[in-house]
Design a protein that fits this description.
five-stranded parallel β-sheet; 3 domains; binds flavin-adenine dinucleotide; Ubiquitin-like (UB roll); Rossmann fold; 338 residues; alpha/beta; 8 helices; six-stranded antiparallel β-sheet; Elongation Factor Tu (Ef-tu), domain 3
Length: 338
Amino acid sequence: MARPPAFQRATVTRIVKESVDARTFVLAPHVAPIPYRAGQFCTFKVIIDGRALYRSYSMSSAPETDAEFTTTVKRVAGGAVSNWMHDHLTEGDEIEVAQAAGRFCLRDTEVPLLGFSGGSGITPLLSLTKSALATTERRIRLLCADRDAESMIFEVALAELAARYPGRLDVVRHLDSAGGFLDAAAVRGFVGADVLADHYICGPEPFMEMVEFAVPDGGTVFSERFGTPAPRAAAAAPTPPAAQPAPPTGTVTIILNRKRKSVPRKDGETLLESARRAGMAPPFSCEAGNCATCMAKVTSGHATLRQNEALTDSELAEGYVLTCQAVPDTESITVDYE
Ligand SMILES: Cc1cc2nc3c(=O)[nH]c(=O)nc-3n(C[C@H](O)[C@H](O)[C@H](O)COP(=O)(O)OP(=O)(O)OC[C@H]3O[C@@H](n4cnc5c(N)ncnc54)[C@H](O)[C@@H]3O)c2cc1C
Protein backbone atom coordinates (compact mmCIF):
# COMPACT_ATOMS: atom_id res chain seq x y z
CA MET A 1 0.00 0.00 0.00
CA ALA A 2 1.50 3.36 -0.99
CA ARG A 3 1.97 6.16 1.47
CA PRO A 4 -0.57 8.94 1.15
CA PRO A 5 1.51 11.94 0.05
CA ALA A 6 -0.91 14.37 1.73
CA PHE A 7 0.30 16.96 4.21
CA GLN A 8 -1.32 17.59 7.56
CA ARG A 9 -0.90 20.50 9.96
CA ALA A 10 1.12 20.01 13.13
CA THR A 11 1.59 22.31 16.09
CA VAL A 12 5.10 23.08 17.30
CA THR A 13 4.60 22.35 21.00
CA ARG A 14 8.19 22.88 22.16
CA ILE A 15 11.51 24.09 20.74
CA VAL A 16 14.79 22.90 22.27
CA LYS A 17 18.13 24.61 21.65
CA GLU A 18 20.54 21.73 20.99
CA SER A 19 23.61 23.73 19.96
CA VAL A 20 24.57 27.14 18.69
CA ASP A 21 22.82 26.46 15.37
CA ALA A 22 20.55 23.43 15.87
CA ARG A 23 17.01 23.31 17.27
CA THR A 24 14.71 20.41 18.00
CA PHE A 25 11.07 21.00 17.08
CA VAL A 26 8.51 18.91 18.97
CA LEU A 27 5.48 18.41 16.75
CA ALA A 28 1.90 17.43 17.48
CA PRO A 29 0.17 16.43 14.21
CA HIS A 30 -3.47 17.50 14.10
CA VAL A 31 -5.17 14.74 12.14
CA ALA A 32 -3.37 11.61 13.32
CA PRO A 33 0.00 10.57 14.73
CA ILE A 34 2.55 9.99 11.98
CA PRO A 35 3.67 6.35 11.86
CA TYR A 36 7.42 6.14 11.35
CA ARG A 37 10.49 3.98 11.80
CA ALA A 38 13.68 5.14 13.49
CA GLY A 39 15.93 6.83 10.91
CA GLN A 40 13.09 8.06 8.66
CA PHE A 41 12.32 11.64 7.67
CA CYS A 42 9.28 13.76 6.91
CA THR A 43 8.87 16.40 4.26
CA PHE A 44 7.76 19.79 5.54
CA LYS A 45 5.93 22.45 3.57
CA VAL A 46 6.40 26.07 4.58
CA ILE A 47 5.14 29.22 2.94
CA ILE A 48 7.84 31.90 2.77
CA ASP A 49 6.99 35.20 1.06
CA GLY A 50 3.94 33.55 -0.50
CA ARG A 51 5.97 30.70 -2.00
CA ALA A 52 5.56 27.06 -0.93
CA LEU A 53 8.94 25.46 -0.14
CA TYR A 54 9.43 21.78 0.64
CA ARG A 55 12.28 20.36 2.72
CA SER A 56 12.89 17.00 4.34
CA TYR A 57 13.94 16.64 7.98
CA SER A 58 14.74 13.41 9.80
CA MET A 59 13.15 12.44 13.07
CA SER A 60 15.40 12.70 16.13
CA SER A 61 12.83 10.80 18.18
CA ALA A 62 12.35 7.04 17.97
CA PRO A 63 8.90 5.46 18.02
CA GLU A 64 9.92 2.83 20.59
CA THR A 65 11.35 5.28 23.13
CA ASP A 66 9.78 8.70 22.67
CA ALA A 67 6.22 9.82 23.27
CA GLU A 68 7.05 13.05 21.46
CA PHE A 69 7.58 13.31 17.70
CA THR A 70 10.65 15.46 17.05
CA THR A 71 12.88 16.67 14.26
CA THR A 72 16.18 18.50 14.65
CA VAL A 73 17.16 21.20 12.18
CA LYS A 74 20.54 22.85 11.75
CA ARG A 75 20.93 26.24 10.11
CA VAL A 76 22.46 26.14 6.64
CA ALA A 77 24.27 29.36 5.67
CA GLY A 78 22.03 31.25 3.25
CA GLY A 79 19.40 28.48 3.40
CA ALA A 80 15.76 29.50 3.07
CA VAL A 81 13.86 26.99 5.18
CA SER A 82 16.32 26.03 7.94
CA ASN A 83 16.87 29.70 8.85
CA TRP A 84 13.17 30.47 8.58
CA MET A 85 12.41 27.63 11.02
CA HIS A 86 15.00 28.96 13.46
CA ASP A 87 14.03 32.61 13.17
CA HIS A 88 10.24 32.48 12.72
CA LEU A 89 8.82 29.31 14.24
CA THR A 90 7.74 29.71 17.85
CA GLU A 91 5.94 27.40 20.23
CA GLY A 92 2.25 27.20 19.28
CA ASP A 93 2.90 27.84 15.58
CA GLU A 94 1.70 25.40 12.96
CA ILE A 95 3.61 23.79 10.13
CA GLU A 96 2.63 21.29 7.42
CA VAL A 97 4.18 17.86 7.45
CA ALA A 98 3.82 14.79 5.22
CA GLN A 99 4.03 11.09 6.04
CA ALA A 100 7.39 9.63 7.07
CA ALA A 101 9.56 8.08 4.37
CA GLY A 102 13.05 6.69 3.83
CA ARG A 103 15.02 3.49 4.10
CA PHE A 104 17.79 4.62 6.49
CA CYS A 105 16.39 2.16 9.01
CA LEU A 106 17.47 -0.75 11.17
CA ARG A 107 17.49 -4.22 9.71
CA ASP A 108 16.87 -7.38 11.65
CA THR A 109 20.38 -8.31 12.79
CA GLU A 110 22.57 -8.47 15.88
CA VAL A 111 25.80 -7.25 14.21
CA PRO A 112 27.26 -4.07 15.74
CA LEU A 113 25.94 -0.73 14.51
CA LEU A 114 28.57 1.84 13.57
CA GLY A 115 27.31 5.37 12.95
CA PHE A 116 29.21 8.15 11.19
CA SER A 117 27.69 11.62 11.40
CA GLY A 118 28.72 15.02 10.14
CA GLY A 119 26.85 17.95 11.72
CA SER A 120 23.07 17.51 11.49
CA GLY A 121 23.63 13.95 10.23
CA ILE A 122 23.45 12.97 13.90
CA THR A 123 19.64 13.50 13.80
CA PRO A 124 18.64 10.16 12.22
CA LEU A 125 21.58 8.45 13.97
CA LEU A 126 20.21 9.45 17.39
CA SER A 127 16.86 7.96 16.40
CA LEU A 128 18.50 4.72 15.22
CA THR A 129 20.64 4.54 18.35
CA LYS A 130 17.67 4.91 20.71
CA SER A 131 15.69 2.31 18.80
CA ALA A 132 18.54 -0.22 18.58
CA LEU A 133 19.38 0.16 22.27
CA ALA A 134 15.76 -0.38 23.27
CA THR A 135 14.84 -3.21 20.93
CA THR A 136 18.06 -5.22 20.42
CA GLU A 137 21.22 -6.29 22.24
CA ARG A 138 23.44 -4.68 19.60
CA ARG A 139 26.62 -2.82 20.39
CA ILE A 140 26.61 0.71 18.98
CA ARG A 141 29.57 2.98 18.26
CA LEU A 142 29.21 6.49 16.89
CA LEU A 143 31.85 8.70 15.30
CA CYS A 144 30.43 12.22 15.32
CA ALA A 145 32.18 15.02 13.44
CA ASP A 146 31.33 18.65 14.18
CA ARG A 147 32.86 21.99 13.33
CA ASP A 148 33.64 22.90 16.94
CA ALA A 149 32.51 22.25 20.52
CA GLU A 150 29.60 24.66 20.41
CA SER A 151 28.21 22.98 17.26
CA MET A 152 27.95 19.52 18.90
CA ILE A 153 24.37 18.22 18.86
CA PHE A 154 22.91 15.74 21.39
CA GLU A 155 26.05 15.61 23.54
CA VAL A 156 24.00 15.25 26.74
CA ALA A 157 21.36 12.93 25.26
CA LEU A 158 24.03 10.54 23.99
CA ALA A 159 25.99 10.64 27.27
CA GLU A 160 22.77 9.76 29.14
CA LEU A 161 22.09 6.85 26.79
CA ALA A 162 25.66 5.58 27.24
CA ALA A 163 25.17 5.65 31.03
CA ARG A 164 21.75 3.96 30.81
CA TYR A 165 23.07 1.10 28.62
CA PRO A 166 26.52 0.32 30.09
CA GLY A 167 28.93 -1.29 27.64
CA ARG A 168 26.57 -0.92 24.66
CA LEU A 169 27.12 2.64 23.40
CA ASP A 170 30.40 4.44 22.71
CA VAL A 171 30.53 7.93 21.24
CA VAL A 172 33.74 9.32 19.74
CA ARG A 173 33.75 13.04 18.98
CA HIS A 174 35.79 14.67 16.23
CA LEU A 175 36.07 18.46 16.16
CA ASP A 176 37.33 20.11 12.98
CA SER A 177 38.53 23.04 15.11
CA ALA A 178 41.00 20.74 16.86
CA GLY A 179 42.55 18.90 13.93
CA GLY A 180 40.91 19.63 10.58
CA PHE A 181 38.37 17.43 8.81
CA LEU A 182 37.93 13.79 9.67
CA ASP A 183 39.90 11.62 7.25
CA ALA A 184 39.83 8.09 5.89
CA ALA A 185 42.59 6.86 8.22
CA ALA A 186 40.58 8.00 11.26
CA VAL A 187 37.48 6.26 9.88
CA ARG A 188 39.36 2.98 9.33
CA GLY A 189 40.92 3.27 12.78
CA PHE A 190 37.48 3.75 14.29
CA VAL A 191 36.04 0.72 12.47
CA GLY A 192 38.91 -1.43 13.74
CA ALA A 193 37.82 -5.06 14.04
CA ASP A 194 34.12 -4.24 13.47
CA VAL A 195 34.48 -4.68 9.71
CA LEU A 196 31.29 -6.74 9.43
CA ALA A 197 29.16 -4.15 11.22
CA ASP A 198 26.27 -2.20 9.73
CA HIS A 199 27.71 1.22 8.84
CA TYR A 200 25.21 4.11 8.93
CA ILE A 201 26.54 7.29 7.30
CA CYS A 202 24.90 10.71 7.28
CA GLY A 203 26.44 14.13 6.79
CA PRO A 204 27.47 16.67 4.16
CA GLU A 205 28.24 15.18 0.73
CA PRO A 206 32.08 15.34 0.92
CA PHE A 207 31.92 13.71 4.39
CA MET A 208 29.69 10.94 3.04
CA GLU A 209 31.93 10.25 0.06
CA MET A 210 35.02 10.10 2.28
CA VAL A 211 33.43 7.71 4.81
CA GLU A 212 31.85 5.49 2.12
CA PHE A 213 35.26 5.19 0.48
CA ALA A 214 37.05 4.58 3.79
CA VAL A 215 34.93 1.89 5.43
CA PRO A 216 36.46 -1.50 4.68
CA ASP A 217 34.51 -3.96 2.50
CA GLY A 218 32.51 -6.58 4.33
CA GLY A 219 29.87 -4.72 6.29
CA THR A 220 26.55 -3.32 5.08
CA VAL A 221 26.54 0.40 4.32
CA PHE A 222 23.44 2.56 4.80
CA SER A 223 23.71 6.15 3.54
CA GLU A 224 21.32 9.05 4.06
CA ARG A 225 22.07 12.03 1.82
CA PHE A 226 20.85 15.42 2.99
CA GLY A 227 22.03 17.42 0.04
CA THR A 228 21.96 17.19 -3.73
CA PRO A 229 24.76 15.23 -5.40
CA ALA A 230 27.52 16.98 -7.27
CA PRO A 231 26.68 17.51 -10.94
CA ARG A 232 27.74 14.65 -13.17
CA ALA A 233 31.16 15.05 -14.76
CA ALA A 234 31.08 16.17 -18.35
CA ALA A 235 32.16 13.70 -21.01
CA ALA A 236 35.96 13.65 -21.49
CA ALA A 237 35.88 14.60 -25.16
CA PRO A 238 33.00 15.68 -27.35
CA THR A 239 32.04 13.03 -29.89
CA PRO A 240 31.04 14.35 -33.28
CA PRO A 241 27.44 13.48 -34.10
CA ALA A 242 27.50 10.79 -36.79
CA ALA A 243 23.97 11.51 -37.82
CA GLN A 244 21.29 13.70 -36.31
CA PRO A 245 19.01 11.46 -34.23
CA ALA A 246 15.35 11.80 -35.02
CA PRO A 247 13.66 14.20 -32.58
CA PRO A 248 11.71 12.32 -29.92
CA THR A 249 8.02 11.95 -30.49
CA GLY A 250 5.25 11.40 -27.98
CA THR A 251 3.93 13.38 -25.05
CA VAL A 252 4.27 13.62 -21.30
CA THR A 253 0.94 14.22 -19.60
CA ILE A 254 0.89 15.48 -16.03
CA ILE A 255 -2.10 15.53 -13.69
CA LEU A 256 -1.71 17.87 -10.73
CA ASN A 257 -4.26 19.75 -8.63
CA ARG A 258 -7.06 18.44 -10.85
CA LYS A 259 -5.38 20.01 -13.92
CA ARG A 260 -4.08 17.94 -16.84
CA LYS A 261 -1.35 19.29 -19.14
CA SER A 262 0.69 17.67 -21.92
CA VAL A 263 4.07 18.63 -23.35
CA PRO A 264 6.08 16.98 -26.14
CA ARG A 265 8.51 14.43 -24.71
CA LYS A 266 12.20 15.49 -24.59
CA ASP A 267 14.95 12.87 -24.51
CA GLY A 268 16.52 12.48 -21.07
CA GLU A 269 14.13 14.87 -19.35
CA THR A 270 12.72 13.77 -15.99
CA LEU A 271 8.98 13.84 -15.33
CA LEU A 272 9.54 16.65 -12.81
CA GLU A 273 11.34 18.72 -15.45
CA SER A 274 8.55 18.04 -17.95
CA ALA A 275 5.95 19.14 -15.39
CA ARG A 276 7.83 22.39 -14.81
CA ARG A 277 8.14 22.92 -18.57
CA ALA A 278 4.37 22.49 -18.73
CA GLY A 279 4.11 25.47 -16.38
CA MET A 280 3.10 23.39 -13.36
CA ALA A 281 4.55 23.60 -9.85
CA PRO A 282 4.73 20.03 -8.52
CA PRO A 283 6.11 19.34 -5.03
CA PHE A 284 9.79 18.42 -4.72
CA SER A 285 12.54 18.60 -2.12
CA CYS A 286 15.91 16.90 -2.45
CA GLU A 287 15.87 16.31 -6.25
CA ALA A 288 18.32 13.48 -5.64
CA GLY A 289 16.02 10.49 -5.18
CA ASN A 290 16.37 10.54 -1.40
CA CYS A 291 13.02 11.86 -0.28
CA ALA A 292 9.59 11.02 -1.64
CA THR A 293 8.21 14.55 -1.87
CA CYS A 294 7.91 14.40 -5.67
CA MET A 295 6.34 10.93 -5.67
CA ALA A 296 3.58 10.36 -8.26
CA LYS A 297 1.93 7.45 -10.03
CA VAL A 298 2.54 6.51 -13.65
CA THR A 299 -0.91 5.59 -14.96
CA SER A 300 0.12 4.86 -18.57
CA GLY A 301 3.51 4.25 -20.11
CA HIS A 302 6.73 3.49 -18.22
CA ALA A 303 9.69 5.34 -16.74
CA THR A 304 13.09 4.30 -15.35
CA LEU A 305 14.44 5.79 -12.13
CA ARG A 306 18.04 7.02 -12.20
CA GLN A 307 18.22 6.85 -8.39
CA ASN A 308 15.84 5.53 -5.79
CA GLU A 309 16.60 5.79 -2.10
CA ALA A 310 12.99 6.35 -1.05
CA LEU A 311 10.39 4.07 -2.65
CA THR A 312 9.83 0.48 -1.60
CA ASP A 313 9.54 -2.42 -4.04
CA SER A 314 5.79 -2.61 -3.50
CA GLU A 315 5.38 1.11 -4.24
CA LEU A 316 7.40 0.67 -7.43
CA ALA A 317 5.24 -2.31 -8.37
CA GLU A 318 2.12 -0.16 -7.94
CA GLY A 319 3.52 2.32 -10.47
CA TYR A 320 4.83 5.01 -8.12
CA VAL A 321 7.94 6.89 -9.21
CA LEU A 322 10.15 9.68 -7.91
CA THR A 323 9.43 12.23 -10.62
CA CYS A 324 12.80 13.96 -10.05
CA GLN A 325 14.52 10.74 -11.12
CA ALA A 326 12.03 9.20 -13.56
CA VAL A 327 12.87 9.36 -17.26
CA PRO A 328 10.18 8.01 -19.64
CA ASP A 329 11.14 5.01 -21.71
CA THR A 330 7.87 4.77 -23.58
CA GLU A 331 6.93 7.22 -26.29
CA SER A 332 4.09 8.69 -24.25
CA ILE A 333 3.47 8.63 -20.54
CA THR A 334 0.91 9.93 -18.04
CA VAL A 335 1.85 10.72 -14.46
CA ASP A 336 -0.63 11.59 -11.72
CA TYR A 337 0.40 13.53 -8.58
CA GLU A 338 -2.99 13.14 -6.91
C1 LIG B 1 16.18 12.80 3.42
C2 LIG B 1 16.69 14.10 4.02
C3 LIG B 1 16.71 14.26 5.40
C4 LIG B 1 17.20 15.46 5.96
N1 LIG B 1 17.22 15.59 7.32
C5 LIG B 1 17.72 16.72 7.87
C6 LIG B 1 17.77 16.87 9.32
O1 LIG B 1 17.35 16.01 10.08
N2 LIG B 1 18.28 18.03 9.82
C7 LIG B 1 18.73 19.04 9.00
O2 LIG B 1 19.17 20.08 9.53
N3 LIG B 1 18.69 18.91 7.64
C8 LIG B 1 18.17 17.80 7.07
N4 LIG B 1 18.10 17.68 5.70
C9 LIG B 1 18.53 18.84 4.86
C10 LIG B 1 17.32 19.76 4.65
O3 LIG B 1 16.30 19.10 3.92
C11 LIG B 1 17.66 21.02 3.85
O4 LIG B 1 18.29 20.64 2.66
C12 LIG B 1 18.56 21.98 4.62
O5 LIG B 1 17.92 22.39 5.82
C13 LIG B 1 18.83 23.23 3.75
O6 LIG B 1 17.60 23.80 3.39
P1 LIG B 1 17.43 25.38 3.34
O7 LIG B 1 16.08 25.66 2.78
O8 LIG B 1 17.77 26.02 4.63
O9 LIG B 1 18.55 25.78 2.31
P2 LIG B 1 18.37 26.08 0.74
O10 LIG B 1 17.59 27.31 0.55
O11 LIG B 1 17.89 24.83 0.09
O12 LIG B 1 19.88 26.38 0.38
C14 LIG B 1 20.88 25.38 0.53
C15 LIG B 1 22.22 25.99 0.17
O13 LIG B 1 22.21 26.40 -1.19
C16 LIG B 1 22.56 27.78 -1.26
N5 LIG B 1 21.70 28.39 -2.29
C17 LIG B 1 20.37 28.51 -2.27
N6 LIG B 1 19.94 29.11 -3.40
C18 LIG B 1 21.05 29.41 -4.12
C19 LIG B 1 21.28 30.03 -5.37
N7 LIG B 1 20.29 30.50 -6.12
N8 LIG B 1 22.55 30.15 -5.80
C20 LIG B 1 23.57 29.68 -5.07
N9 LIG B 1 23.42 29.07 -3.87
C21 LIG B 1 22.18 28.95 -3.41
C22 LIG B 1 22.27 28.37 0.09
O14 LIG B 1 23.09 29.48 0.36
C23 LIG B 1 22.59 27.22 0.99
O15 LIG B 1 23.95 27.17 1.28
C24 LIG B 1 17.63 16.51 5.13
C25 LIG B 1 17.58 16.34 3.73
C26 LIG B 1 17.11 15.17 3.18
C27 LIG B 1 17.06 15.02 1.68
